[in-house]
Records
---
Amino acid sequence: MRPIRLTMSAFGPYAGEIQLELEQLGTHGLYLITGDTGAGKTTIFDAITFALYGEASGENRESSMMRSKYALPETPTFVELEFLYSGKQYRIRRNPEYLRPAKRGGGTTVEKADAVLEYPDGRVVTKTREVTAAVREIMGIDRSQFTQIAMIAQGDFLKLLLASTEERKSIFRQIFQTGRYQKLQERLRSAHSALQSRYQECKRAMGQYLQQVQPPEDPAQAATLVLAQQDSLPLSEAMELITCMLQTDQAAQAALKQQADALQKDHAKAIAQLTRAKELEQVQTARRAGIYERRQLLEKQAQQQAKLQAAQQALEKNAAIPGQITQITQQLPQYDTLEQKSRQFREKQRQLQILESTVQQLKAQQSQMQQKLTLARGELEALAEVGTQYEKYNARYQSAAEQLERLENLRQEIQSRQTAAAELAKAQDDYVKKSGKAQALREEFTIQNRAFLDEQAGILAASLQDGVPCPVCGATSHPHPASTSAQAPSEAELQRLREKSDRAQQQAAEASAEAGRLRGTEEALAQQVTQMAAALLGTPVPDDLSAAVFQKQTAIQAERTRLEQEMQLEQGRMERKTILSRQIPEQEAQLAQLQQKCAASEPQVIRLQTELENEKLAVEQLRSSLTYTSRAEAEQAAAALKKTYEQLQAAQDNAGKQYQRIADQIHTLDGQIQALQKQLDEAEPIVPEEVQKTVQELEEKRRTLEENQKHLHFRLHTNRHALEQIQAQAAQCTELEQQIMQIGALADTANGTLGGKEKIMLETFVQMTQFDRILMRANTRLMIMSGNQYELKRRTSAGNMRSQSGLDLDVIDHYNGSERSVKTLSGGEAFQASLSLALGLSDEIQSSAGGIQLDTMFVDEGFGALDEDALEQAIRALTGLATQNRLVGIISHVSELKEKVDKQIIVTKDRTGGSRVEIIS
């Protein structure tokens, strides 16, 4: 990955928008990022990292802190990066979350974090997470790997250089993601501990199950069981004892079952005799109940015979009811005639009411219409002269509109004059600047021209010899020859200065002409404004024309509003006059129609009143000849008589049926009593008390036997379950012993706890292999930087067998052949070693990340600790690193580097706040 162009806006110490054309630095070699402390040198790498991954390069710099404290509120914060990868150019723009001014309503609002990535083929990916994932896919590395490969931070790698094995393990765990091996170690240790816990739990469970074994009846077996439960008997003998106890109890259980079967047969026979005695007792009870029930039925039969005779007498007493029903039925048609005549009378009565109400409504409408017509005629007469005032208001309204239009034209002219005045002032200022510049260039040319001429005399004087005539004056003596000057320009430089002065003179002349043209325009506009103002506002013309025009416009607009309101009122009166002129004839016609309808309705009222009197008399005569008031009442009376007669008949029938039912019951009961008596006569005599005593004796024996069976069953079930569990736990303990031996050996090996062995964990062993590869790559640089004196080496022997080892680091001094700890190196030597270690780590990470090759990397600080020779060697090593199309950027404020590195990015603090950047290529 090689950056092409980097743009930062309100980012870190950069207040405004800064654009770095990084392509100017070329494709390989060294360049220096230098400047004031705190100016923002490292921020350039932060910006590249933030654009790619949405995070800064350092762990202590969060993206939310990237908003510049020097930026104006309205300046947006973003980073835009164009970069090459595998020959293809990508463009990415990203902004962090920050507060910005709200577009509406004042205050501030949160600008959400966002990102956009453009592919070479035009595809676009948006949103922060999606863009970060796309960058990881393109480059094949994440932010952590990128910062470790592309950014060599001297302080971090000096810490790695001087770290102990434990500290270096933690660092490598983050770099090479070896935490999974640490997790494997912990899992093996936890598995071994868990197996041991399960083994102890298994042994404890066997003891618990042995304590649950119930003692047998045999005293010898019971005593042996006590020894087993006290853990004084081998487990195999304890299990054999329990097996013998189970066999003895099973034989006893079979004997008890035979006794129980014989006892059950005797008990069933006694129960059958007891049941037969109870049945005979029930037969005797049923016979006595039948006799008692027969006496009760005979009494009910006598009572029911009396009820039957009473019902027959009541029916004979009401024998006239059928004739009454017939008479009522024959009069039913006359009730229909009465109802029809009554309906006709009510209908004519309703028609008369409607007609009388209609006449009253017509008379009321006639009165209202007469009043309405009188008012309309009076209102029309009052509006006879309306309409003349409307034309007067309209004329004044149009005049005000014309004045407003002229005032608006004057206001626009005033604005044009103000614009012209501003342009004139700007042009005059431009002329002053260009004129001053032309004057300065003219004076500089005069000085340089004089120096050039003096230089020509010096050149001529250099060829003079005593005794030889001067080619200018002919003198043979030259006591004061002219000398040459180091500051004199060349003829080409003088010519460029003359052209630059001429261009400045031309630009000053053009600026003067433009200022003159604008002055003419401004004066013409001023004269036109004065004339228009005098015509509209009078003389003298007010000083503040804009305010006077606004005041005049406001007054005329208020007058127009008042005239518009008056015109609307006048127009409403005209419309009302038109409406009244149309409505009055219509109302007169409606009044005439109402009068005609009222006159036509009065004869109909008189006719209906006469017909109602006649029909009322006929209805009253017919009603007086009938017993009931209506057909429904007559039908209801007939139905009541019919119901009464039917109830009397039903009472007679029901009494006869009840009498016969009781007689049938007495006959049936006589047969049942005879059958029960026959059963009693034929039965064998049984004494229930003796049979009951036998049943009780048998049940007592059975309860005793069941108690013995339950106790024996409980002991058998408990001891059988205990034996099964003891056997299962014993098998599990055997299996766990094998697993403990296997997992224990693995856990001790992975965790470096094997007795008598070097304390190297599995994770440390993996890191040792990677550390050796890093040291191999690092020593190629360290040998160059140290003049073939120093070489890094991983310590292969442990200091003791108690502490963790494997990642300790020594240094070989080839000048004296010694091997010692890296902590003995001086400050400059330690920087060389840590820089070499960092470069080796960067190469290893690129290799482990799939051969990723970054075309640009940065080295941050640390060069101040080097002397001149060491600095030369470090530059030589970095120059070798920067071959093959790789750019290496050194971030430093060491002044000696400015002389040794040609390409530079210079970061400078501004006094007003913020920083600025310049590229020197």
---
Amino acid sequence: MQITFICGRQHECRLIRDLLATPPGAALLLHGEPGAGRSTLLAYAHQHADDRTVLSAAGLADEAELPYAGLQRLLDPVRDHAVDLPERQRRVLRRVLTGDGCGDGDRLTLTVAVLGLLARAARERPLLCTMDDLDTGDVPTARLLAFVARRLRPLPVTLLLTADDGSLVAGIPSRRLSPLDETASRALLATRRPGPPPEPVLATLASIGGGNPQALVDLADALTPGQWLGREPLPGTPPPDGDLGRAYRAMLDRLPADTRRVLLLTALAADVGSGVLARAARAAGTAVEALAPAEAAGLVRTGPYGDVTFPRPLARAMVEATAPAADRRAAHLLLAAACGAPGQRLRRALHRAAATDAPDPGLAAELVAVATEGGHSVDTAAALARAAELTDDPASAAERRVAAAGHAWAVGRTGQARALLRALPDPPAGTGVGGPVTPRDAALGGRSALLRGEMLLRCAAPSAAPPVLLAAADALAATDRATALLALLRAGEAVCYSGEQYRYAEVARHPVAARRDADGPEAELLTTLVAGIAATLRGEHLRGGPLLRRAVVLGGRSGVAMTPSALTGAVAAGLLVAVDAAAHRLADRAVELARSTGEVCLLPRALELRAMSEYWLGRHDAAADSCREGLLLARSTDQHASAEVHLGLLAVLAAVRADRDAGLRYVAEIGDSAPPDSRPYALAQWALSVLDLVAGRYADAADRLTSLARPGTGRGQVMVQVMATPHLVEAAACAGRPAQAHAALAVFDRWVGSTASSSRRALSARCHALLAPRGSAEAEELFRAALRMHPADVATFERARTELLFGRELRRRRRPRDARAHLHRARQAFVLLGAETWSEQATAELRAAGESVGVPQRPAERLLTGQQLRIARLVAEGATNREIAGRMFLSTRTVDHHLRNVFHRLGVRSRTELTRALGGAPPQYSTYS
């Protein structure tokens, strides 16, 4: 294995260094799938052996039938030391090392002889013995070394073994080499050539490699310069002639022929079910039971109902890739014949297509017919892509490729979608696929441009997306108004994401944006939304507000079918006019609809908008959950731009809760990749400014927030700055910069005046109170007005912040008795919300107001959610996490997550303390005047 740089194996390297640094007499087994880096780690051990004598060997498949062949190669350099052994041990050892074998009665003697030989060889210098691929070589050597490994303690000998299966050697420490994470995978890929590849190439290769180091190396080394730079389609699997392919081929060659035959059928069968696999195996003259040797080798796992799975991510791909082409074709035909049920038409057609080499228009038409019967799925994308390959008409082939790319993008296969679009021919200027430009060519170009633009927006370069998306709207305007409007909506999203709101006027002026009498509800929603956003960005809130509220109403109509894209547009409209509850309902609908239709690509955006509505509703925990789910989906679908937005929102949510470590961690994950005017950059700056505000760095906080946008120019993140205005005003007021605060508040008030949101009006009143003359009746009345307008059932956090600021104001006006009531309410709310830093600030203000404040006795019923409380009570009854998971129909991981939050909120560290907390006295706050 030619891996020269170890990435993602820091823990294993530390284990090896510790093993070599311990007193003599230690052993370690490293095990994992082929290509996991076992040989590389042995080489690392050799490099760090220092003054040790190194003995090394590897198990060879060619010698698997030769007893003790591996032992002979390992001990050959020190066999001269056998002269010091007792006669019988020397005789048995010599007989084994010269190939005469070892009788059953001499096996213990042989083991003792090997231990003695190692001890004598280590008299001058300690030994490091390594045996790679222990399970590939002969079994007697493996058994003997396992026996020796358990008896090394008194000897100055370190034994390091590697194997595919961790159960091969029992009784010694072992370490499984798990797949590399994405960061380590990318780092390894970046070391293979000068200059790392573009981000989409890195992401695709990391996904194909499945965290297997050798797969990643083979992929990187096999790519052409065009593939490495993202100009040519990437392969779908590691190369079969690479080191990993050779390792799998050697492993497969050791299996019986029937096992290999059924294993290939299993690899190609995908999700057709155990019945299809059994029928195909019978047709091949064998049975599923022939997989037993493959299961023993760890390649497959058989379930209780006959289902067969590949526990290793790459095993299925490598079994298929390393099989001869003729064998693959025969296996596909067997599987096609076995797919006889009505629901298996698509799988049957796909298997037939996989066994076909030449163009076949009839089969291509069948693939299209069965693919269009279902919704978005991986199989649908594969069927349409294969249909394009089998189509001899260039125009039809191009249409099918674009359709396949659309389905691939919808289900989150971004790399596949890009590859399909790259495969489209480039027609000469002024012509289409088959000659002069026709409406069919224009529609095809428009749909492909829409896909390219969406991928630029979500994945790579949002600032480059608007012209592509506007061109798509132009091309589709005459033939597909609904899709043209979607392209226009995406163009508007792109200019807003990039901080180039001045370009939204171009979007709004596009002919497609004009409302038509014949428009249906969805088209009316989108045209109304574009007009409303354009007016709002111009500052014309009295014009834009009614249009946006109309879009919300259209999106919320019952009985009217809407796409997830249209619903997310309605959510954005709801957020712009501050109808948070309606926006949240629409966002929930968008998320559920995207899931039910299989449009995974839309989920990150829908979850982003849901998180924003939850933020304004004061549901910070729910907003963070939405962001974490959106971040996971964005990363899994290569939507890097969307992932950065979720990181930015998570940073803001952490900062608002004064969780400095988490906030800085999320900002660091965004790093320098977000351009200065982009939404992720603005969110990161918002988060940092809130942390500055918490720490008392008021001028820094105000400067950060002021720089987010440049009002009047249409540049920067105007809406993010407006959302952050309460923090900007507070920071500027505390820094003694009233002009800076008044300028921001004027923009905020114009927006708030166009809404009917009591929570936004409360924030406006709080801001004005902070800017009113200190100690004035005006300030007090504005604080009281803010408290009256804060909704009682939502935004509890913001109400508590207002109580804290009002209490602080009253204390500074030397009215401590009046201040204490507000500060107590603030402190209690922060404790219930788990906002410890804010609770500490309220506590400090109470003490400054002359009150000695004790530690609150927090009531579990008020601190915990309903589900958390039920889990806590089950723990108090003595239930284990697994029992709780079973009773509540949850995963144990979910129970663990909730229980950690329970411990944190109740301030306990053990189940015993939790039980005591639940059985304590009624909650109260201990205070002394």
